Amino acid sequence: MSETPLSETPQEFEVKPRTDGKRLDAYLASRFVDYSRSVLQKVIEAGGVEVNGRAVRASYKIRAGDTVRIALPPLHDPTPKPEDIPIEVVYEDEYLTVVNKPAGMVTHPSRGNWGGTLANAVQFHFDKLSTVAGEDRPGIVHRLDRDTSGLIAIVKDDLAHRRLGLQFEYRQVHKEYLAIVYGVPDRDSDYIEKPIGFHPLVREKMAVREPVDGGREASTFYEVVERFRGFALVRCKPRTGRTHQIRVHLLSIGAPIVADKPYSGRDRLTLADLEAPGASPDDPAGVLIERQALHAHKLKFTHPITEEPLELTAPIPADMARTLEALRAHRPAETPPKRSR
Q: Whose CB among 110, 214, 258, 263 lies 3.0–4.6 Å from 180's, allowing a Cys bridge?
């Protein structure tokens, strides 16, 4: 049964003719726009909705004249609460700061992740943050996926936020990522120019999609930094900023990112996977990395107030460094690199 807490003051109203025949959950979602349909379905499952004095299912088709009685849970306050979470500051002045986000940290609050986010952390560490992105994203100009580590700019001033936001919009911010991938790309370097849209079957994933199917322009430059037997270290410079862009583009050329479960099907890399002598798949000490091996390594932009150029770097994190050391030891390259285009 649902754990959704219900309010003590139910609302009661009559269904109008123009909504006759709608599913109950869809009807309530259109009436109570501050609540998601999934939350309203949980309220229905918890017995918080009655139609004509009796509990019904979410699929119930409402009729004109029905009397609906509903007890709604309190709305969640979207403002991130300050939390004393350590953050690594790479650069800071009175207008902005750039931090090195660890893997496993969500950038800003969302359903299912109301605490422990970068936004909660910066609320604690900084007295002033820009409000341009809204109360749920204080100072946030751009984001990284939960399991991607690396550089994120946090802005303290609204004017600085708007100006930096325009740099992102006009593709004047240069981002560089490091990724460890399965397989070895055919070329030393190349552009991947394939449109990206929502996956047709899995809501949480993206995919290469033609524009007619909702795909949007996406371009990523990559170059192979180091080759191994069956693996490679790749530098990526995205020119657009689509959701999961690097992950989808590398998959599209047959080189999915190591331990990126949604796109590679595997959620970790171990010494046993590298066929290291004496390694056991059941030995926890043999685990090299347990999240997508993707790191936002460099960020280059013009300071939005002083107009000075900024180029910042975040060192490769410990789990990726450990993985590279193991690859050099157990999977050294056997063939020379191929030619660039």
A: 258
Q: For residue 236, give the H/E element and its range.
A: strand 231-238
* CA–CA separation, 113 and 137 (whole Å): 13
Name the nearest CA neighbour of 324 among 232, 241, 239.
232
Q: Which one of 145, 147, 157, 273 is the catalytic residue?
A: 145
DSSP β-ladder status, 174-182 and 231-238: antiparallel
CA distance 253 to 251: 5
Question: Percent of the chain scored above 70 by pLDDT?
Answer: 94
Query: Could you confirm whether 145 is annotated as catalytic?
Result: yes
User: What secondary structure does DSSP assign to 85-115, as a single string?
Assistant: ---EEEEE-SSEEEEEEPTT--SS-BTTB-S
Considering only CA atoms, which of 176, 138, 173, 139 is closest in space to residue 154?
139
C-alpha–C-alpha distance, residues 106 and 181, integer Å: 23
Q: Is the pTM of this model over 0.90?
A: no
